[in-house]
Amino acid sequence: METLPPDKNSERGMPMLLSPTPPVHAPKDPAADPPTAGRARELAGRVAWPSTAERDAGRRWDEDLFTELTRAPRGPGLTGPLIPVELGGDGLSASEAFALLEGCAEGSRDPGLTLAVVTHAVLAVVPLRAFGTPEQRERYLPRMASGEWPGALSLTQTQGAARTPAVRARPGGPGQPGWVLSGELGLVAGGPRAHHFLVVAAHEDGGRTAFVVDRSTPGLRLREERPAAMRTCAWSRLVMDDCPVPKDAVLGTPGGAPGEVEPLLAALDWVFCGAPWLGVMRALVRDAIRTAGERDVFGSPLTHSQTSRFALADLATRCELAEGLLRRAAARFDAGGRPSLPEAAAARLFVTSAARDAAVTAARLAGPLTARGDRLIERTHRDALFFSATGGGPEVLQPVVAAHLLALGQG
Questions:
Q1: Sequence-ordered alpha helix ranges (H) in 109-207
Q2: How much is the pTM?
Q3: Which domains are assigned to the chain?
Q4: Where is the Acyl-CoA oxidase/dehydrogenase middle domain (predicted)?
């Protein structure tokens, strides 16, 4: 069964290239670490990390902290890295933006906070940049770049055609041009603070259309939602009761979401939502090395144990493999190629497994020290299960990879 459309252009074309910069491959040593990653790591470590454990325990979103983090005066910002300079953004390549998000998560040790950044800066921005009309781009992107207009969407909408949209769209009645949207969406990342939402809605004939819906739309309301994981992200449930939206709220071609916005959203989620987890895994590796040197077993440091050495080697190897897969998939968004759904799906499959295994290995090495400090191991174990379920999980990702290998849906 084909889960997503074949990887080819729609009628309107797929303007997904994000930068004229040639693809950038994974750095081979610390000296090659992208400057954006280093700056983001230092800033997040200084601004966000001191309160990460407390915010997680209290399920608390900190808007002031987010503002300080995203509007730092030095270096690329976290609200508009992929927005062109002429529209007020930083104009980074996809590879540079990926490094920025990775560094933010490694420094903050907070995948929930970084997910809020990814949702606005990537998932809400890139579809507008790729499929928005000139008027839509000029209206939204400069204010999104400044952080004035945060964007949000439901993570249930990043699975392509694998999930039937929970929102229905029908044409407006007499004297009501445009569309009327009804339905509910859960897991809206960034919802409580959003100015607008990216919504994919289904039509009676089975077609699907993407819309940009402002929060001020009549009939739109938000309900509280508190997932068990990723507690430091701002969450809500979006309820739409016969919301009238104008024709110019359509993003892309009416009825064209399956070949335009939906596959792009899937690729963006599978790649860029993995960036925070690469940063978290790096933090786990660093902690595990330190912990292994501090623990004694039968009077000898844990690092003298061959089993522990093998566990550290396996942890570091998985981290490096995850980096290679993710960075290669991210580079596809830059010049010289277009997003590859099979590569993005393969990267997501590996990273979700690697993140869970990293938490288990780190816990085994830490032993009774697992719960000390900012409880990164404990939080990672919980949040990695959530991460593996979003984006569709293996039920969606494996068919995408298999269809590519077997050349299904081609020719």
A1: 111-118, 125-131, 134-146
A2: 0.91
A3: 30-152 (1.10.540.10), 154-253 (2.40.110.10), 262-405 (1.20.140.10)
A4: 176-243
